[in-house]
Write a structure and sequence with these properties.
Elements: H1 18-36, E1 41-42, E2 48-50, H2 51-58, H3 63-67, E3 70-73, E4 79-82, H4 87-97, E5 106-115, E6 127-136, H5 141-158, E7 165-171, H6 178-191, H7 198-206, H8 217-224, H9 235-250, E8 256-257, E9 269-277, E10 286-292, H10 296-299, E11 307-313, H11 314-323, E12 328-329, E13 335-341, H12 347-360, E14 364-368, H13 375-384, E15 389-393, H14 395-399, E16 402-407, E17 413-417, H15 421-426, E18 437-438
Parallel strand pairs: 1-5, 7-8, 13-14, 13-15
Antiparallel strand pairs: 2-4, 3-4, 5-6, 6-11, 7-9, 9-10, 10-11, 12-18, 15-16, 16-17
Helix pairs in contact: 1-5, 5-9, 6-7
Bound molecules: histidyl-adenosine monophosphate (HAM).
Length: about 450
């Protein structure tokens, strides 16, 4: 029944319902399957943290911290922030709980909502959903390559066409080589200040590397001939980068070296990467990305511990799957049977039988009427729910200790014992209901 809503979801947020909720479930389910093959375990951290965790972790000069955080004071006057991303939160949790432990390694993944006050558009929301992974402890090029390959494997497993994805890889250097380069780039930007947009003029002093992300065509022209960090890496960073890309090549995954890939968060050191979709998403074409953050633990008060990770955006991945006409398959939930009461006097029996089915077999879901519907209307409801079987509880049959099983595909009927229904269902795994394909529709406000 259509209603005139008094309240709307806040701008930049959407309700995940129906197919979009199932798509979120499917991405989660697939993440659990794929990531566990690499040894990852789920971590759930709070949705809000002390503001300092993000301000120190992500960097005060970033857009995320400067302009996009949802911060508020609690009743004791402490500043808290809804997480704009989860790497800083996971590292905070790892320091607090010593999660890397004796082994010096923790492989963790997470899924949930993030919050950034951005201008909403297709593939960009204020509350959006991320799935991410972090490897805490390893510093090796193998750890970087494994992380990139896991993200790639995940996208391929979901069904995104390889030909429409591009993997970009770059190195952000380290505290040995980046500061000198940063100054060099800042000088270059200052020399071209008249050709730059006002924001990039400021960036020359605050965060010169972010100028590479500016969409202004004039800035892009200036940046095209700017000095690149890839030419200024120290020997260790250059060697690390060569080993990472050699491992990707050995794994047969094609990548594009992109010396202008700088990413929007300040914690990155050495390897950064992004998977972009070539067609169908417009400006918001980054499905996911990440990189190494070897200084973040210390930044948040922990012992020096290297780390690397990524996060992907659910809305963009779902849109990309939709654009590729790639239907999402449900996570393989149970088949559905519908227990229908032929008349009102038998409603309690049907209700009880549905509960018996649910507790006696794992493979079948059992639905029954909760709205006093006629038998005809119950059949309609069974159809709508994609039921493979309707169990009809009728007066004469019940009298004889029996029920009627109706196959919804062939319409064939069979009389069986009332207390043998769950066994009968388990003996008929071949019965199919309506298609369990999902189509993905609208994800953005
Ligand atoms: P990020 O690049 O800021 O990285 O976000 C990762 C992904 O989240 C993006 O590629 C995009 O798909 C999605 N995303 C970001 N903002 C929005 C938005 N406003 N609406 C919809 N989707 C969005 C991080 O968050 C890092 N924590 C990744 C990481 C993990 N690096 C190391 N470990």
């Amino acid at each position: 029944m259509a209603q005139n809503p008094t309240y709307q979801a806040p701008k930049g947020t959407v309700d995940l319902t129906g197919d979009s909720a199932r798509a979120w479930e499917y991405l989660n389910h697939t993440a659990a399957q794929v990531f566990s093959r690499y040894g990852y375990e789920l971590i759930c951290t709070p949705i809000f943290e002390a503001t300092e965790v993000f301000a120190r972790g992500i960097g005060a000069a970033t857009d995320v911290v400067n302009k996009e955080m949802y911060s508020f004071k609690d009743k004791k006057g402490r500043s808290l922030t809804l997480r704009p991303e989860n790497t800083a939160g996971v590292v905070r949790a790892a320091i607090q709980g010593n999660l890397a432990g004796e082994a010096g390694l923790a492989k963790l993944y997470y899924a949930g909502p993030m919050f950034r006050y951005e201008r909403p558009q297709k593939g960009r929301q204020r509350q959006f959903y991320q799935i991410g992974a972090e490897a805490l402890g390893p510093a090796s090029p193998e750890a970087d390559a494994e992380m990139i390959l896991m993200l790639w494997n995940y996208f391929c497993t979901l069904g995104l066409p390889v030909v429409n994805m591009e993997l970009l890889v770059n190195s952000m250097g380290c505290p040995q080589c980046r500061p000198a380069y940063r100054e060099h780039l800042a000088d270059y930007l200052r020399d071209h200040t008249k050709e730059l947009c006002p924001e990039c003029q400021t960036r020359a002093d605050t965060n010169p590397l972010r100028a590479f992300d500016c969409k202004n065509p004039q800035c892009q022209t200036v940046l095209a001939t700017a000095p690149k960090l890839s030419d200024a890496l120290c020997d260790d960073c250059a060697s690390h980068q060569r080993q990472v890309t050699a491992l990707l090549e050995a794994a047969g995954v094609t990548y594009t070296p992109d010396p202008t890939l700088v990413r929007g968060l300040d914690y990155y050191t050495r390897t950064v990467f992004e998977v972009q979709i070539k067609d169908g998403l417009g400006a918001q074409n980054a499905l996911g990305g990440g990189g190494r953050y070897d200084g973040l633990f210390e930044q948040l008060g922990g012992k020096p511990t290297p780390g690397i990770g990524f996060a992907l955006g659910f809305e963009r991945v779902a849109l990309a799957l939709d654009a590729a006409n790639q239907y999402l398959f449900s996570a393989g939930g149970p088949r559905v049977c519908y227990v229908a009461a032929a008349d009102a006097a038998l409603r309690g029996r049907a209700f009880g039988l549905a509960q018996t089915i649910r507790t006696s077999t794992q493979k079948w879901a059992a639905l029954c009427d909760l709205q006093n519907k006629s038998l005809k209307a119950q059949f309609k409801a069974a159809d709508r729910a994609g039921a493979a079987v309707v169990v009809i509880v009728g007066a004469d049959e019940f009298e004889a200790g029996q029920v009627r099983m109706r196959n919804m595909q062939t319409h064939a009927e069979e009389l069986i014992a009332f207390d043998g229904v769950a066994r009968w269902l388990d003996d008929h795994p071949e019965l199919q209901g309506a298609s369990n394909q999902l189509s993905v529709s609208s994800y953005t406000s």
